[in-house]
Design goal:
The chain has helices at 9-20, 60-70, 93-103, 118-121, 128-133; strands spanning 33-38, 43-47, 76-82, 108-111, 114-117. By secondary structure, it is α+β, with helices and mostly antiparallel strands. Strand 1 and strand 2 form a beta hairpin. Bound molecules: tetrahydrodeoxyuridine.
Length: 135
């Protein structure tokens, strides 16, 4: 099991760049790649996949979450999201919510200011616990 003390950020950054170049972005021409370290040590990743029906485009994080679940699930420990230049990119609001579902408040997200906890990137997030509380 990995924890947020032994994160190879360089490896995650490389994995995010490696998948970013595979993005399907004929409309925005804005490729995004994202990679996460999972609690069991594996790395999952995703890139954005756009659509001629513009609003149906899938963000890179959608691909990552799909990859996470289809390869066995687990908890996201740390995430790196990059733009075309390999610079750290702050995931959009919807994607912070997607990441929160599988990483919770403690997941670390790399930013140009260094790693930040999810509860700083998405404070007061709505999540699975809220559904339980109202039962
Ligand atoms: N995009 C992502 O894939 N993830 C984000 O967190 C930010 C935005 C994509 C969506 C669209 O394909 C392109 O970037 C431009 O918005």
């Amino acid at each position: 099991m990995v924890n947020n003390q032994n994160i190879d950020w360089e490896k995650l950054h490389k994995a995010a760049i490696e998948i970013m170049v595979k993005a399907y972005v004929p409309y925005s021409k804005f490729p995004v790649g994202v990679a996460s370290l999972v609690s069991d040590g594996r790395i999952v990743s995703g890139c954005n996949v756009e659509n001629a029906s513009y609003g149906l485009g899938l963000c890179a994080e959608c691909g990552l979450v799909s990859n996470l679940i289809s390869t066995g699930g687990g908890k996201l420990i740390a995430t790196v999201c990059v733009d075309a230049k390999g610079n750290f990119l702050a995931p959009c609001g919807r994607c912070r919510q997607l990441l929160f579902e599988h990483g919770g408040n403690e997941m670390l997200l790399m930013t140009p200011d260094g790693p930040k906890k999810m509860n700083e990137m998405l404070p007061w997030a709505f999540g699975p616990d809220d559904l339980e509380k109202s039962k």
